[in-house]
Amino acid sequence: MSVNDISGPLDYPTEEIALSVNGEEVTAEVEPRHKLSDFLRDARGLRGVRVGCEHGVCGACTVLMDGRAVKSCLTYAVQADGADIETVEGLADDGALHPIQESFHEEHALQCGFCTSGFVMATKELLDSEPDPDRDDIEDGLADNICRCTGYQNIYDAVLRAADRMDGEADDEGAADDEEATGDGATETEADR
Ligand code: FES
Ligand code: FES
After folding, report:
1. Are both 83 and 107 inside the same structural domain?
2. Which residue's alpha carbon is at the smallest distance from atom 2 of ligand 2?
3. 110 within 8 A of 116, measured Cβ to Cβ
4. Confidence of residue 151 (pLDDT cuts 50, 70, 90)
5. pTM, full prediction
6. How would you classify the pairing of strands 24-30 and 15-21?
7. Whether the CB of 73 sits within 6 Å of ligand 1
8. Which residues span the domain enclosing 111?
9. Does residue 165 fall inside a structural domain?
10. What pLDDT, in 10s, does the model give residues 45-82?
11. 110 and 65, same structural domain?
């Protein structure tokens, strides 16, 4: 094929990557130019990874890479080699929504929903590092995400509600662990011994 013949398929070099996507071990051949957002959407079918601006401004494509929120439109898939990637699809537990998702729903923190998965993942990073955020923490934590239609008040309220809910769940788990460790809550009586 001559250099001027562009009719045939172009053969780009690829690299193998191995990563975890929502807990699933994945290997794939990707071109070095491929963005992580395109890899997740097209190769993995994870359409909750939204692509809006494609230049790092809107935050719709936010995913967690080793627990840190990244713009997947600014990240090459090869950069995720060896990483642990979480997308919004990985949050629900056996069909039960994650507390952050529940809270966005209950606080009506979305309208069209295009931005929502990015906000949810940014919220997860925030609450994983700061379980009891104040308003400034929330504004800072979500500063890289843009919503064009909801207005931010409901989103901030949803984050506070999620923090309360996750704190309550942590307390419940702690109490259950204490009961298990101390034997409190067991029904054994003196007569049983
Ligand atoms: S699509 Fe990635 S920041 Fe907008
Ligand atoms: S809900 Fe429409 S852009 Fe945020």
Report:
1. no
2. 112
3. yes
4. confident
5. 0.85
6. antiparallel
7. yes
8. 92-180
9. yes
10. 999 999 999 999 999 999 999 999 999 999 999 999 99
11. no
